Amino acid sequence: MPHFFFDLHNGLGLVSNEEGRELPDLETARREAIKGIRSIISAEVEKGELDLTGRLVVRDGDGAETLVIPFHESLTIVGRWTAPAA
Amino acid sequence: MQDRSQTLSPMIDKLQLWRPLDPAEKRAILALPHKVEEARAHACLVREGEKPSHSCLLLEGFAFRHKVLVDGSRSISAIHMKGDIVDLQNALLGTADHSVETLTRATVAFIPREEMKRIAFEFPSVGLAMWYDTLVDGSIFREWIANIARRDAAARLAHLLCEFGLRLQAIGLGDRRSYQLPMTQEQLADATGLTSVHVNRTLMDLESRGLIARSKKAVTIADWKRMEDAAGFNEAYLHLRGQVSLSPP
Question: Which of A38, B54, B59, B78 qualifies as a FRET site for A46, CA 20 to 30 Å off?
């Protein structure tokens, strides 16, 4: 199985991934990347923070970048409630 | 060559964490019929739904208990090490309600479940120690539920690292502050209800806070007290009761 590394780039800098994971294909790597982003975002939301400026970079076994997923692409964002005009 | 008659001694060491055993009780444990098998890493020892005819005792290496959910994801509910009777409950329950897999290469002794029952009744002190063992397992499960339900990612991982180190030390396999962790980030994720991406980020976070140092599989906990505070770790649930000599950090 091919090996993939998931590097996180966010406001705090780069969190590189040295261990990586063996996954069947790039599509599975994309799904895992999106799950990973959502899990990090959820933990931040629980602490009252939502920062969508990060991105997750997937590298293949040779270290070459194969996917870049901006955090905001892992979500459907539907705006916010505004009070009706008086 | 290991003396065959001493093969099951890790079971004595483990049970004596809970109760002292007298020479006759120890001899009875060593005389339990069993077969020893070498297992590779990621080998299945017990499969959910099966009716195991034997209980498995870990003589060497590490294993974990887990369930696979309908969407294919996996939840790890316990880590096991040398001396643990991984599926003691199947000696009585019959049908395995979860699976057991090796984390590393392992040496496993398979003991017929009827023999486990027999020794418990013939030597009540051994039976009591086995009962104690399942109760402590239950206590660890409760702590893991609290971990996944209520702690944040950093505390969850810190807690798992404290527990692993302390249990290793309790059975004489190392120092709680410096050990080899035989788990991938994916397995850590399945044991903490996180994702491997989140685990990678969180381990880096623990490292940048100076709580742990890592090099490949090696984990070092520089300041045990600070780590306990970060994890909300209170070792009482392991019921080791001063049997582990805890020198100051």
Answer: B78
